[in-house]
Amino acid sequence: MTLNATVAAVTQRITQRSQASRSAYLSQVNAALQRPPGAQRLGCANVAHAFAALPGNDKLRVVAEKASNIGIVTAYNDMLSAHAPLQHYPDLIKAEARKLGATVQVAGGVPAMCDGVTQGTPGMELSLFSRDVIAMATAVALSHDVFAGALMLGVCDKIVPGLLIGALQFGHLPTVFVPAGPMTSGLSNGEKSKVREQAAQGLVGRPELLAAESAAYHSAGTCTFYGTANSNQMLLEAMGLHVPGTAFINPGAAVRDELTREALRTVLGKQTPNAAAPALGAVASCPPIGRLVDERCIVNAMVALLATGGSTNHLIHWVAVARAAGIVIDWNDFSELSNVVPLLSRVYPNGSADVNQFQAAGGPGFVIRELLDAGFMHADVLTVRAGGLREYTAMPTVATDAAQDHVSNTAPSLVWQAVGASKDEAVVRPASAPFSASGGLKLLTGNLGRSVIKISAVPDDRHVIEAPCRVFDSQEALHQAFAANELNRDLICVVRWQGPQANGMPELHKLTPPLAVLQGKGFRVALVTDGRMSGASGKVPAAIHVSPEAAAGGALAKVRDGDVIRLDANTGTLQVLVPEFEWAIREALPMPEPLRQANGLGMGRALFANLRRNATTAEEGACSWL
C-alpha cells in the first residue's frame, strides 16, 4: 500500500528538522555498541560488586560463560492497581532466563504515582514532572552498565513515557516493554460519570459517590477508560516495543504469564515464531532501542494516537520521548496528521465502550492492520520482533496441543491469530468506513497563544463557542463559583497559572463534572487553560495546554473577567475579541504571590522547584532536562 502523502510529507519534514540532533544521538548509540560487553569491559572489582548477590550458577553464567545479562527496571508498587500485578514478574522472568542460559537482575525501581489518587490535591502538582524523575531513575538503574538488554515494567500515565525517555539514554540496548493489562470491567464509565455529575449538583452524597467509584475501580489492572495509561499501551504496540498484542490482556488471564516470558525471549532474540505474520527476513536479534525509535516509528505512534482518539497528554509526552531520541516534533505535525488520519475507534470518553470491549472488538491489532492497509502507517520499521509491524496485527493466545504439533516439546505455548473483521463496529471500524475522516485532535492558534483541543467526543454543535469569560486563578475557585450558582449562563471559564512553570501542570479532571452539568442545562460553555485535561477530557470543549503559559508571560495573564473569547475548533482559532490596540497595551498580570508561595510548599513540591523553573513549554514537551 502506498504511504499517504501527508504522512510521508510530515515524516520527511520531521526527518529534515531533526537531522543534526538525530545524527548526534545515533553517533552516541553506535559508539556504545562498539564496546565489549559490560562484564568483560569493567574492572574486576566492578564486576564483583555487580554480581556479588547472584546465585552461584547465575554468577558462573554471566562471568565465566559470558551469558547475556538482562536488566529489569520496574515500576512495581501495590499502591497502583495497574502496577500491583508486576510484583511477581521478575521471578517469572528469571526462571525463564535460566532455561535459556541467560541471567536477569532487577536493575532498579522507579516511582509510580496514580493521578486518580492525587487528582485535585497538591500531590497532583508532582505528577507531570514525575515523568522526568522516572526517566532519571531509569538512567540510574541502567548506569551500572552490565546489561545486554533491558525489560521495562510499567503501564500508567507518566511511567511509560518516563521509562521510555530513560531507556533511550541507553539506546544501544535492546529493550522490550512489559505491561500488566487492564482490570476487568466494573461499573461502566458512563454510569460512573453520571454519578459524578449528580454529586456535583448535590443530588447524591459521598456514600453514593464512593460506592460508584469503587465499583468502577475494583481490582488489579489498569483503569478501563481510554486515558493516558491505555493510550500508552496503544502507542507502544504501534511502535513495536511490546510483544505483539500484549497491551490489553487482563491480569490473571492464561496467556498473560506466557507473554511476560515471551518478553524475555524477545529481548534475547529467541522469540516464538508468529505464524500469523511471517518474518520479513533474517533478524539476528532484538534491535537496539535507539535505532528502533526513529522518525517513522514516532510518526506511527502519532497516527495511532489520532486514530484512536487517545490522550491529549501525549502531545506533551511524545514530544519529550522524540527529543530523547534526537527527533523534533511539534503540534503542527500532530495537527496535519489529524487532518487526514481517520478515527477508527470509540472508547470512553470518546464512546461508551471500555478497553476490554475495545480488545474484544479487535483491539490494537485491528487498528494497526487498518492503518497499515490504508497507507497511514510506515510498515518498513524495525520492531523488537523479527516480523516487523505486521506482527502487531494479530492477537496472542495460549496454543492447544494440536496447535503445537509442529514445534518441539520445549517450545513456548503462544500462538497469534489474525484479528479478522471488527467484532463490534460501534467500537472499532475499518478505515473504509471510519467514525470520522479525521483524527480527534485540533491545534488552536490566535492571540491567546497555541493550544490543543480534543474534539472526538465533543458534539458537533459545540465545536464553536463564543461567550464572555470568567477568569479563575485555581480550579478550586471555579468549584466555589459553581457551588454558589454563579456560572449558570453561556460562559468560557479561563483557569490560568496551571502550566509547567507555574505549578507543574496538574490535570484538571475535577473541572469536568461541573462544566458538564452546565452544558447539560443547555448553556454554551467551554474551558480555556494552560493546564492539562488528559485522556479523560470529553464532551465539554476544552482548549488546553495554552502556550506560552500565564506564568511565563503568556496571553492568559492579560485576560480579564467579561472579555469575549471565541473558541473555534472548525477553523482552529482561539481568540480574545478585544480591540487589537487595547490588547497590545494591556498589562500581563503576575501570578498572585500567595498562589506562587503555596505552589512551592508541602507534599514535596519544594523539591520540584528546579524542575518547574527549568521546564520548557508544553509544546516542547515540558522537559526539565533540555
Overview of this protein structure:
The chain is globular and about 75 Å long. The chain has helices at residues 5-17, 19-33, 38-41, 44-51, 56-64, 89-99, 115-118, 127-142, 159-168, 189-200, 206-216, 228-239, 254-267, 289-292, 295-307, 314-324, 331-340, 355-361, 363-373, 475-483, 500-503, 512-520, 580-585, 593-599, 609-614; strands at 69-74, 103-109, 149-153, 175-178, 394-398, 414-418, 441-446, 449-454, 464-472, 491-495, 525-529, 542-547, 564-568, 573-576. It folds into 2 domains: 5-34 and 68-184 and 219-418, no CATH class; 441-620, 3-Layer(bba) Sandwich (Glucose Oxidase, domain 1). It is α/β, with parallel strands linked by helices and 626 residues long. Helix content is 38%, strand content 12%. The protein has 25 helices and 14 strands. The strands form 3 sheets. An 8-stranded mixed beta sheet has the order 7-8-12-11-10-9-13-14. A 4-stranded parallel beta sheet has the order 2-1-3-4, with helices on both faces. The two termini are 38 Å apart.
Summarize the helices and strands and which ones pair or pack.
Layout: H1 5-17, H2 19-33, H3 38-41, H4 44-51, H5 56-64, E1 69-74, H6 89-99, E2 103-109, H7 115-118, H8 127-142, E3 149-153, H9 159-168, E4 175-178, H10 189-200, H11 206-216, H12 228-239, H13 254-267, H14 289-292, H15 295-307, H16 314-324, H17 331-340, H18 355-361, H19 363-373, E5 394-398, E6 414-418, E7 441-446, E8 449-454, E9 464-472, H20 475-483, E10 491-495, H21 500-503, H22 512-520, E11 525-529, E12 542-547, E13 564-568, E14 573-576, H23 580-585, H24 593-599, H25 609-614
Parallel strand pairs: 1-2, 1-3, 3-4, 9-10, 10-11, 11-12
Antiparallel strand pairs: 5-6, 7-8, 8-12, 9-13, 13-14
Helix pairs in contact: 1-17, 6-13, 8-9, 9-16, 10-11, 10-22, 12-15
